[in-house]
Amino acid sequence: MVENRRVTRKAMAFVLAGGRGSRLHELTDRRVKPAVYFGGKTRIIDFALSNAMNSGIRKMAIATQYKAHSLIRHVQRGWNFFRAERNEFMDILPASQRRSEDHWYRGTADAVTQNIDIVDSYDVDYIIILAGDHIYKMDYEIMLREHVANGADVTIGCLTVPRAEASAFGVMAVDDTGRITSFLEKPADPPAMPGDPDSSLASMGIYVFDWPFLRDLLLKDAEDPNSSHDFGNDLIPEIVKHGKAMAHRFDSSCVRAPGAPTYWKDVGTVDAFWQANIDLTDFTPELNLWDREWPIWTYSEGTPPAKFIHDEKGRRGVAISSMVSGGCVISGTEIRNSLLFTQVHTNSYAVLDHAVVLPYVTVHRSAHLRNVVIDSGVVIPEGLIVGEDPVEDAKWFRVTDRGVVLITQDMLERRAALL
C-alpha cells in the first residue's frame, strides 16, 4: 500500500473541459458540455474529478474554453476543499492567449502545452490526461501502476466494444502483451482484439504519461507547423510509431459491483443524455450512484426534502419508479419513470412520464409531458401537451430521431409569441 500511495501522490490529473458538445444542441447554448447536469444532483465533470479524488490524486487542473462560467462556478462551489498546505491543488485554467494573441487553445495537446509552467509547479512525476465529458467510475491508480510497471511512454485507457460498432471510435491494434501497434481514427475495418475476433479496443481519451517525457514531446509538437496539436491526431500516433504505447483495459479498473457490467457513457447527444438519465430510474441501474465506497462528489445545494402533496383522485402527488431531488414540490402531479433535479415544482393534474427535468423548473397545471428533456429554469405553461403528436411538437421544440423532445425557455417564448 505504501508504494501505491506513492504513485498517486506523485501524479496529477489534467482535465480537458473546453469543448462545447454541439450535438447536445440547446443544452450547451449557455454552458460547456462538462457543466451539463446529470443524475439529479451532479454535473458531467464530477465523474472525472471524483474518479481522480477517489483514486488518491490530490493535484488537479481543469482547462476551460467555451462558455465556462457555469463550469467554473460549479467547481469553485463544489470542489473548494483542496488545501495547499496539504500539497493539494485544484486549478482552473481558462484559455488566455498565453503563447500569442492570435489563438486560444488550438487543440487538446496545446491546452497542456500552454500550461507547462503550472504543471511544473506541481512537482509531479506522472500526468493523467482526462476528458471531462464522460460518465463512468474508474480507479486511475490501477492504470497508473500498470503504466509504471510496463515502463511505457504512454498508457491509453481502452474500452472493449463490439467490432461492428468500433468504426465510431479511435481504435487500437495491440499485440499479445497489450502493446499498441497501430492507432486508427474511425476505421472502416476496425482491427480485432487478440483472441477475440468480434471485439475491438476503443480509446477512452484517457492517457497516462511520465511528465518529463510528455513535456519534451509537447515542446517539440508546439514547433511543428503541420501539427493540429491534438493528442489523438498527432502525439499518440507519433508515440505508437516511435515509442512504447500500451493499452489499459477499462474492464480491469472499472468500479462496479461484483458481476456487474462495465459502465461508460458518452452522453453527447440529446437521445444518449435522456436515456442515461432515465436508466438511473431502473430497479437496479448499471451506474451505482449509491455506492458509499466510491462516491460522486459534487456541489450540494442546501435544500429541504422533496415534498408530495394532495391525495385526491386525479390530483395525487406521487412518483413511481422515479428519482426526485431535494427542494422539489410535487403538488397533485403524477410522475412515472422520470428524473427530477433540484427545486422542481409541479402543479395539480400534471403528468410527467419518462421526463428528465433539470433544476428550477416549474410545471403548471394540467401539463402532460412524455419523453422530454426540460432545460433548467423553464416554466411550463398550463395545459401544455408534449410527447403525443411529434408533428406538432416539432413546430416548437427540438425532436430527436428517437422522439425525445428538448424544451427550453426560448422555445416556449417563441411559441407563445406565435400563438
Automatic annotation (TrEMBL):
CDD domains: ADP_Glucose_PP (cd02508), LbH_G1P_AT_C (cd04651). Alpha-D-glucose 1-phosphate binds at Y105, G170, E185, K186, S203. The keyword Nucleotide-binding applies. One of its GO terms (biological process) is glycogen biosynthetic process. One of its GO terms (molecular function) is glucose-1-phosphate adenylyltransferase activity. InterPro entries: ADP-Glc_PPase, ADP_Glu_pyroP_CS, GlgC_bac, GlmU/GlgC-like_hexapep, NTP_transferase_dom, Nucleotide-diphossugar_trans, Trimer_LpxA-like_sf. Involved in the biosynthesis of ADP-glucose, a building block required for the elongation reactions to produce glycogen. Catalyzes the reaction between ATP and alpha-D-glucose 1-phosphate (G1P) to produce pyrophosphate and ADP-Glc. Homotetramer. NCBIfam families: glgC (TIGR02091), PRK00725.1 (NF001947), PRK00844.1 (NF002023). This is Glucose-1-phosphate adenylyltransferase.
